[in-house]
Design goal:
single chain, 361 residues, alpha+beta, 2 domains, six-stranded antiparallel β-sheet, 31% helix, Peptidase_C69, cysteine-type exopeptidase activity, Secernin 1
């Protein structure tokens, strides 16, 4: 699941959580304008096209590239859907095609939107308060603030809506057998709504008992992120990324957008150029090793945590202490009245990744 919580307190307008719930299903990101987008693959009455088009993760990246506000990013995504459609394989797997429709949480400092799509058709709701989540099925009902101009006529043409009853998006476009429950961590966040912190969000992401954090043979939480978007524009947006799977065994590391931010090659997957199986036709005939240095170091730490209880406990304690230091340093930045010096944070994420890798070694 992917969550947003809008806190009604002076300093912080929104805390956004976005994480891939399943290996195949999600993408998340942020840009320098303070726009955050999270994507979930969803089941709908109409299957997504198997032919190559735009994947949900493609639309996340394009929305972040071209949108300076949440609404601009939403407009970019729906315009691209209209022009190119969505579809294609989410797996590097030539033997079968796994295609999905998509839902999005799109947020900036001022507003938040839930966008849900079926082919080129879509509906969106503007979120003004409380906790909202998107999962692997449609959630919008009768409160629709924007929609594709032919959405309802298309539903009627398919025989899914008579035009006489109130239009309920999820009822009209969901599969008949879709009885899934949604958002395991939503209740936890709603109970703590007046006192949600970054640590609260991280704890929810690490909750395996509820099913929010997944680590099984079939599915894996591939990476996690928490973003803080202060309403006060003099305060920077702060994004915490793991860059590694399973948040219960990963360190959330802070990142701030500034000019001349230092790139982090150790957290970037290798580039294969024209030899990448994703660029060759037919596609995905082989699967290259896309692990980056941080991922490989994390695999070692994971093996220790699983095989040596005493050493694993020491390792986990040190990891959490490193994370705590980062959270405290970022809280000082958010509460400080002094303007942020970009030179002091340009290499913030680089240093965090470098420290983490050295620590694992």
């Amino acid at each position: 699941c992917t969550y947003i919580s809008i806190n009604q307190v002076p300093r912080t307008h929104a805390i956004v959580i976005s994480r891939p719930a399943w290996l195949w299903g999600a993408e998340m990101g942020a840009n320098e304008h303070g726009v955050c987008i999270a994507n979930e693959a969803i089941n709908a009455r109409e299957p997504a096209a198997e032919m190559e088009a735009l994947l949900g993760m493609d639309l996340v990246r394009l929305g972040l590239e071209r949108g300076a506000t949440a609404k601009e990013a939403l407009d970019v995504i729906v315009a691209l859907l209209e022009e190119h459609g969505q579809g294609g394989n989410y797996y590097e797997d030539a033997n079968s095609c796994h295609s999905f429709q998509s839902a999005y949480l799109i947020v900036d400092r001022e507003e938040a939107w839930v966008l849900e799509t079926v082919g080129k058709y879509w509906a969106a709701e503007k979120i003004t308060e409380g906790v909202k989540c998107i999962c692997n099925h449609l959630s919008l009902t009768t409160k629709i603030d924007a929609e594709h101009p032919e959405l309802r006529s298309y539903a009627q043409s398919q025989g899914w809506w008579t035009g006489e009853d109130e239009f309920n998006f999820s009822e009209v476009f969901s599969p008949a057998d879709d009885h899934l429950t949604c958002c395991s961590g939503k209740d936890t966040l709603e109970k703590q709504e007046e006192s949600i912190t970054v640590q609260t969000m991280i704890d929810v992401l690490r909750d395996k008992a509820s099913g929010v954090c997944v680590d099984s043979e079939s599915f894996l939480t591939t990476a996690s992120a928490v973003s803080v978007l202060p309403q006060n524009r003099s305060s920077p947006g702060i994004h915490y990324f793991t860059g590694t799977p399973d948040p219960s065994r990963s360190i959330f590391k802070p990142f701030i957008f500034v000019d001349d931010v230092k790139l982090v090659p150790k957290a970037q997957s290798p580039c294969f150029g024209d030899d990448d199986p994703a660029k060759k036709e037919p596609r995905f005939q082989e699967k290259p090793d896309r692990r980056h240095d941080l991922y490989k170091a994390h695999e070692w730490a994971r093996a220790v945590l699983e095989s040596d209880e005493e050493q694993g406990q020491k390792l986990r304690k040190t990891m959490l202490e490193l994370e705590k230091q980062g959270l405290e340093a970022m809280e000082e930045i958010l509460t400080s009245s002094d303007p942020l010096d970009p030179a002091e944070v340009g290499d913030l994420f680089y240093d965090c990744v470098d420290t983490e890798i050295k620590f694992f070694k």
